[in-house]
Amino acid sequence: MTSLTRRSILALAGAGALAACTSRPPVPGDSGRARIDREVDDALNELYATVPGATELAAQAKGILIIPNIRKIGLIASGAYGEGALMIGPAKVDYYSISAAGIGLTIGATAFNQALFFMTEQALQDFRVSDGWELGVDAAVAFQKDGAAAGVTSTQINRPIIEVVFGQRGLIADASLAGAKYSRIVR
User: Fold this and answer.
1) How many domains does the chain have?
2) Cα–Cα distance between 112 and 23 in angstroms, integer?
3) pLDDT tens by residue, 33-85
4) Is the whole model's pTM more than 0.70, yes or no?
5) How far is residue 66's CA from residue 43's CA, in Å, rounded to a whole number?
6) 41: domain range?
7) DSSP labels for the chain?
8) CB 153 within 8 A of CB 53
């Protein structure tokens, strides 16, 4: 078997795994905004049901960015993309995308959900007025690993931004979003 054939098989396997990561087929005639709204609501329900402390954290947050179904695929070089909504209280006030690209040891495909809890007015304002915002080192991270739910602890709540990654599907050797860029989109 040549290396080109091996690469082709890995690429097909990755594409198949990514296709298997989708949560549901698209609805005919569904607008982009309606699709994002529906997926955000589903992801928010999953977050509250699976991550201990998420409901309490949401009650304290000034805003929450929910990005459901972030898809990441890679074979040495990797890319990730997803679209979601910024919620202030129960209202979806803006729509955002996340995109990331990287080079390194990444093999496979995955999909997952991300929630960013903005715990201070300043953190929320900085996010809303920036163009091409990146998650900084001031963020605390909680994620589910191997099917076990990671909770949000009180030591993380003192951070201005808390990132929660949940609902992973698929298989990938690297699920980081280092260098991811968040951009406002019109829907």
Assistant:
1) 1
2) 10
3) 999 999 999 999 999 999 999 999 999 999 999 999 999 888 878 889 999 99
4) yes
5) 7
6) 3-23+31-185
7) --HHHHHHHHHHHHHHHHHHT-SSPPPTT--HHHHHHHHHHHHHHHHHHHSTTHHHHHHH-SEEEEEEEEEEEEEEEEEEEEEEEEEETTEEEEEEEEEEEEEEEEEEEEEEEEEEEE-SHHHHHHHHH-SSEE--TTEEEEE-BTTBPPPPPTTTTTSSEEEEEEEEEEEES----TT-EEEEE--
8) yes
